[in-house]
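Researcher: Sequence of 3-oxoacyl-[acyl-carrier-protein] synthase II follows. Predict its structure.
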Amino acid sequence: MGRGYGGGSAVTRADIAVTGLGAVTPAGAGVEETWRRVCAAAPTASRDAELAGLPVDFSCRAPEVEVADRARRRQLWRQDRFTRIALAAADEALRDARLDPSAWDGVRVGTAVGCSLGGAGTWEAEFARMRREGAEAVSPVVIPRLLPNMAAGEVALALGARGPSLAVSTACASGASALAVARDWLAAGLCDVVLAGGTEAAVTPLVVSGFQRAGALSARTGDPAAASRPFAADSDGFVMAEAAAVLVLERAADARARGVRPRALLAGCGTSTDALHPTAPHPEGRFAELAVTAALADADLGPGDVDHVNAHATSTPLGDAAEASMIARVFGHGPSVTSAKGVLGHSLGAAGAVEAVLTVLSIERSAVPPTANTDAPAPEFDIDLVTKAVREQRVGAAVSNSFGFGGHNVSVVLRAV
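Model: Prediction complete. Tokens:
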């Protein structure tokens, strides 16, 4: 890449820095808007006109994103929404990291973007058009619009990132899996900068109906704003959401060489697989525990070094119970715990990246947002859940958990610089 970036030599794994953050979530187009609403514990779930008439007719929608660049606007017709919001998040993250794509040749810049379902909206719309009007009515760009890898591909194309590029799909752990991949690339010396994160825009009638039929969604149609209730005794399922988040990762020495102070360090990543059931977790989170302990070992930390856990906590009774059991067992000293999904809903493949962004902010600002809609955890959950108001506390090291259908478990450790 030049301009003071490293030459690709392998480094110790604790040297990977977060230098830029970007997000588009139901709380707003931008990291600061998202942080403010999460800290205010103000839920975003509301009635969704596109879901009218379905048993579950509410969701957490992200706002439309503005595209200022004329050349970019000319490309929107070929992009599904999950790609467009990923591009917006990547742009914000690069500005935050003080990186200018016009100043690099891109051969040492990688992109790793997780996604669970890809262009679900394109799938449904184009299939309906074919049924109505015949095969000749199908868009010639339907395939590049719906492919799950196109968020990573379009980000690389827009930014001239010519290093490794990968779409990661581990269901609701996809965004966190992308961070783990990016960390490995940087530690191995394959890249100097990686844009890593997740994106999802799959709030469609078919997808929502599928989750509803599986019993995964909250049925609180009378009060959507109160539907997502992580760790609550009366939680009954998650709320579908859309979002994108991107983090700029680079070696800490390279960041400092160009005059940028890391916002946090991505100190460790751990992964495991339940190999138990297609959709249900182990009831005590025994295999999720393997991911957490692997991430801690990778970061050269013990459980007692962790001040805060940003939980996956989707508001499903089975999932929340399994995670609460695991947190209590691993972290006997009782670190603070929170879940942003009471505000943001569950954005599937984007969730792990969104929550990593929020964890970085908790570290930087010594503040843990409350868990919206939950006044206290269920009595059987022995965790120190932050509720009602932001908790001011020093966060030197934090764990962010992500779990997905298929038994995927990913934990990342972030720590202060």
